[in-house]
Amino acid sequence: MDCFGCRLANHMEETNVVFEDEYITCILDIDPLNEGHTLILPKIHYKEPEEIDESTMKAINKASVMISRALKAIYNPDGITIMQNGGIFNDLGHYHMHVFPRYKDDGFGWIEPEKPSIKDLKQVKSRITEGLTKLK
């Protein structure tokens, strides 16, 4: 397997597995934002979320809820962040979801642009609903 994410998900690399089933493997991130930072990786190679079959996506979502509950019980965080980076922002080249505990002053965040006007939101809504219609 050339894909590092596939090797991680299929025990071909050393990892710290916290949960797995027939579709996914959940491992601790080696460069965690906070203690407990977990990655959910499908065992089959997928790069983008739209490629993932329904059974695997259900397993990913179920695991994200289970891990969130465990992290809340263990670490008593201020919140939980669940995120996925696609395209050029997917540094692993294999779909993976991050689930990690958050604390008020943990330093994680992003800069938000100015809020769009209501007119802008209506234009965006129109573009997206048209795009969704074309996908049907």
TrEMBL record:
Example of a GO biological process term: nucleotide metabolic process
Keywords of this entry: Hydrolase
Alphabetical list of PROSITE patterns matching this protein: HIT_2 (PS51084)
Entry-linked InterPro entries: Histidine_triad_HIT, HIT-like, HIT-like_sf
Residues covered by the HIT domain: 4-109
Any one GO MF annotation of this record: hydrolase activity
Gene3D superfamilies in the cross-refs: HIT-like
Active site: 98
Domain of life of the native organism: Bacteria
Sequence motif Histidine triad motif, residues: 94-98
Pfam annotation, one family: HIT
Coiled-coil parts of chain: none
Descriptive protein name: HIT family hydrolase
Organism: Paenibacillus oryzae
